[in-house]
Design a protein that fits this description.
- The complex is a heterotrimer, with 2 copies of chain A (about 475 residues) and 1 copy of chain B (about 190 residues).
- Chain A has helices at about 1-10, 30-35, 35-45, 60-65, 70, 90-95, 125-130, 135, 155, 170-180, 190-195, 225-235, 255-260, 265-270, 275, 310-350, 355-375, 380-385, 385-410, 425-435, 440-450, 450-465, and strands at about 60, 85, 205, 215, 240, 250, 280-285, 285-290.
- Chain A has about 475 residues and is mainly α.
- Chain B has helices at about 1-5, 10-35, 45-50, 55-60, 70-75, 80-100, 115-130, 135-140, 145-150, 185-190.
- The longest helix of chain B is centred in the N-terminal third of the chain and has 24 residues, at about 10-35.
- With about 190 residues, chain B is an all-alpha fold.
- The chains are: A mainly alpha (about 475), B mainly alpha (about 190).
- At the A-C interface, helix 16 and helix 19 of A face helix 17 and helix 20 of C.
- The structure holds calcium ion (2 copies).
Chain lengths: ~475, ~190, ~475
């Protein structure tokens, strides 16, 4: 009887906030004092045990399982280290650990700009408010190492007064403005996607906007499709890097999750990111949002089955089927791109001229862009399988045309046969093939972790100890 | 009379046994009262919402075209005979009540096969006139089977609960929430 | 409530069947006496006014709107004439009118075998029962011209005693048997798809099964995917024709509607062909099956909206979006195939050897097969967009590799430049380019229509006048 009384009472129970939280409070545990359910579920993203067929909450060393990536990114940071990521809880750890951020020895050292912090922590809005946005984007990544220490959290998505969803990053607001859209008019349901679109989007660093700043910019002025963004980059003649073998002016696509999602049927039907990745949960008549953001395949009951009356195994199979069908051709495109880079290098070696190579290099740029757009968005083969398949097809067509041109050019230079495919059976072989000194890179990282990193953590601890509100949990 | 006497416990035991039996009977009635179990004998949809976890289904039904003509039991219990009706009700009721008390309910409740069959028969019960053209039924051998063998809501996916199903899917709906059985003063006393 | 009572009253009307119908009764109007609602709705398929973006109930001359097809099918009947078809009502008219069936002058003349009648009429089961199946498949198309005259109808799908759905054609039953499946075990819901799968499937003529017969066979022994069927054909070294330019041993895909549908989400969820193409309709308090088989876009309310509560315009847009995305790349593949045929011809002209051409011709065969599999199924870009996109992608990859080989081969033969794209701006130009004498073909058809066809119709009329049951409507 007591449990029945209790359970009936549940439905009427109401929660009252206890702690006054400032908007720029970066510590999740402080917010968590008021919202224990959300906080506890958020911390479940520390669990890295779930693995799905292609994704999941463990780190996956993508270069290890697919060494062709090393060749595609030759000359660029990603060829050193690239992983399929894990939960928000690890955002700060992982950017510190990545070989892409190198081994800075002081706050003006290292390969990356401070902008890299932008999507990793609620310390970012705090610093932006302190320094100003353009200032934040200036200098090296190492400059803010002692400031940005709390992993992605409440302040990134919430207004501290009302707990409404809000946009804490300028990049998205600016992109909307340039498109003539007013983000403050977004509906509640749209906000359940737009908070994610602050980070899960393709971006580049605009070096011209503010002197000395790597200004975080979303390339959506002409639209959000792969083609529209490609056109945008072509017109401003932007490239992320020059490929070390083919010399093509390359583009890197980064997690265009929001862009691809937008072209899928779920977006069309008004389903938001949060509907699948943060489904509502009801515990004892109290409804709350599950803040354990993760692959929905670890939580099919609450995410998919709310809308689909199918068995769990079948829904998971639906996801895998889509991923398999897309990834089959994405892999093919990847292989063709390796060939193209190797063949282009051969052409240069045989004395091809800039003029002869111009179209070919543009072909490689465009084909690889499309591949990357489809690959970098880990959810795309499910979020928008038809669109993702379409993009890959156009990529395969472009690389095909390009390799025909290469075949003719090589023949003209006296080399009329297949260029042999490199031995890149493992990550190590591939990295050696493109001439990376991995031992050195790893040692530098190690030195950073031993010398500079502990200082950052020390400084941050001291600073936070001085905040008004002490952590009381 | 003799039989009753025979069933009575030996004298020294009579008082304690009566006491214990009384407590059990009292508890039973209390539970029956507090969980509003008496209401389950009725067909009133509000009674299903005694468990707040039935609210989404109440809300969706309440906004469907079926609200005017059907209550939950029109669909969810058999109507082929009275015994079957109450037997099914009791069986289902027991499972639901115990799962509820033990907090075993899933986040997204799925109707069970037995329940499906019952609902399906009820759809047919009401709509058979539309489904079964007497001319065809008399001239086409399997017409009645073919017109009714497939679960209706495979096509009529929104009837009557819509497509979004979850304990949390209709948070703001006006569902006749049960009043709290705990008095206000007690609530205040317990708070903090 | 009163209207409910009223509507129910409508249904209490009782009636007893009038006409005894034999299983081999080919005349729909006879069946229609018993089932006026179904019959009347069936005859609505005579209406050809509806047009959707890519399909609809009008005839679309596909060679006119896309002359590249002429080149792809050079040397084969389809380059003469190919239309996007119309309703079942026209099946017999259209096969008579098509230039593909030529202009026979007597019953042993003409380019096509009698097998071509198989999917056009309920006279077919009648004749098969009379002649035997292998016998039916023997001889010329013209042999049965006076026998097969009623368009697709009741006897094709129904058992006359029970009106149950049944399979009237041997092809499907045999194919199931060879796959070890028992079609008599099919559920009622599966039958709502399988009656269509008698005809809306890929097929070929097996010339070895019975002496002198073009035995209608479905190539599913290894599976129903594009790859599995391709493998089946490769292993038996089957080809429909040899391309007149490239000399490739080609495959023609014909309406693999059932095969592609099976790989889409609707099939996965148990939605049958009839659910969309023959939805229930209610008239006078009675629900019955709408026998006006057509594009569901002309009937969104009953087909899509029972399951999807979306606006009509939106659902139609969903269909068009899928078609657009698929057809974009299908068109690209088509263009690349034109190039490949032209380039292969050039290679032969420059003295390429069989050995040099072998892989190239297989590449063309496989790439065009995949294109055709995606194109010949008019519903595929909606029925299974993800799978259809996947198939097209593999086709583009194969034709790309093939053209690289061609480029190298051409260079080796001293021709290291682009082969120019032919002027095939119109159907006429394209047909001239591949060397078709259209004037002659049209004249032959005209002569057939004036001389032989009226005789067929006359004979048939006489025969039917002798049937026990007279038409009484
Ligand atoms: Ca992951
Ligand atoms: Ca049509």
């Amino acid at each position: 009887a007591s449990s029945v009384i209790e359970r009936r009472a549940e439905a009427v129970f109401v929660n009252v906030p206890k702690t006054e939280v400032s908007q720029f409070e970066p510590r999740n545990s402080v917010w968590g004092e008021n919202y224990p359910r959300e906080f506890q579920s958020y911390y479940q993203s520390a669990d890295t045990s779930f693995a799905s067929k292609y994704n999941g909450s463990q780190m996956i060393d993508m270069l290890e399982i697919d060494p062709r990536l090393v060749v595609l990114w030759a000359g660029y940071g990603f060829s050193r280290d690239y992983s399929q990521g894990r939960g928000h809880f690890y955002a700060v750890d992982d950017i510190r650990n990545s070989l892409r951020t190198g081994g800075p020895t002081n706050e003006t050292d290292g390969p990356q700009p401070s902008t890299c912090w932008t999507c990793k922590s609620p310390d970012v809005p705090r610093m932006m408010q302190e320094e100003g946005v353009s200032e934040f984007y200036k200098g090296k990544w190492s400059r803010l190492g002692a400031e940005v220490v709390n992993p992605i959290g409440c302040a990134d998505c919430h207004d501290s007064k009302t707990m409404n969803l809000h946009i804490s990053r300028p990049g998205l607001i600016e992109a909307f403005e340039r498109q003539g859209k007013d983000i403050t008019k977004a509906s509640h349901q749209e906000m359940r996607t737009l908070v994610c679109a602050q980070c899960h989007v393709e971006y580049y660093f605009d070096k011209h906007k503010a002197e000395g700043a790597a200004y975080l910019t979303f390339p959506w002025d002409k639209g959000m499709s792969a083609e529209a963004i490609e056109k945008y980059y072509d017109e401003i003649e932007f490239s992320d890097w020059t490929h070390s073998m083919s010399k093509a002016p390359m583009l890197k696509a980064q997690h265009p999750e929001y862009e691809t999602y937008s072209l899928g049927i779920h977006a069309e039907r008004g389903v938001s990111c949060a509907d699948c990745h943060m489904p509502y949960k009801s515990e004892g008549g109290q409804k709350f949002t599950d803040h354990h953001i993760q692959s929905p395949l670890n939580n099919v009951a609450n995410s998919c089955q709310v809308c689909h009356r199918e068995e769990t195994a079948k829904l998971i199979q639906n996801v895998y089927d889509r991923q398999d069908k897309i990834i089959e051709n994405r892999n093919k495109l990847e292989e063709l791109l390796v060939y193209a880079h190797v063949e282009a290098k051969k052409a240069w070696d045989l004395g091809a001229t800039e003029a002869e190579m111009k179209d070919i290099l543009m072909g490689i740029r465009h084909a690889q862009w499309r591949w990357d757009f489809a690959a970098a968005s880990h959810g795309a083969s499910f979020h928008a399988p038809i669109e993702t398949g379409r993009i890959i097809s156009t990529g395969i067509a472009i690389v095909g045309e390009t390799r025909i041109k290469l075949a003719r050019l090589l023949a003209r230079k006296g080399f009329n046969q297949e260029v042999s495919y490199p031995d890149i059976a493992t990550k190590e072989k591939a990295q050696e093939f493109i001439g990376l000194d991995m031992k050195k890179l790893k040692e530098e990282k190690q030195a950073f972790r031993q010398n500079l990193l502990p200082k950052w953590i020390e400084t941050a601890k001291k600073r936070e100890a001085g905040y008004d509100k002490k952590v009381g949990m | 009379m003799k039989l009753i006497l025979h069933l009575l416990p030996p004298k020294p035991w009579r008082f304690p046994v009566l006491l214990i039996a009384g407590i059990f009977i009292g508890l039973f009635f209390f539970l029956f009262y507090v969980s509003k179990a008496y209401s389950y004998l009725s067909d009133n949809p509000e009674t299903c919402v005694n468990c707040h976890i039935m609210s989404p289904q109440y809300a969706t039904w309440n906004h469907s075209s079926h609200r005017r003509y059907t209550n939950c039991n029109d669909c969810h219990v058999p109507h082929n005979n009275v015994f079957n009706k109450y037997f099914f009700k009791a069986k289902d009721g027991m499972r639901h009540a115990s799962m509820f008390a033990l907090r075993l309910e899933p986040q997204v409740i799925f109707i069970h096969q037995a329940g499906k069959d019952v609902v399906h028969q009820n759809c047919i019960r009401c709509h058979s006139k539309l489904l079964l053209d007497p001319k065809l039924v008399s001239s086409v051998k399997n017409q009645s089977v073919h017109a009714t063998d497939r679960v209706c809501w495979e096509c009529h996916r929104e009837v009557p609960h819509g497509q979004v199903n979850s304990l949390s899917s209709t948070p703001n709906a006006r569902v006749p929430l049960p009043e709290s059985p705990v008095p206000d003063w007690l609530k205040k006393a317990i708070a903090n």
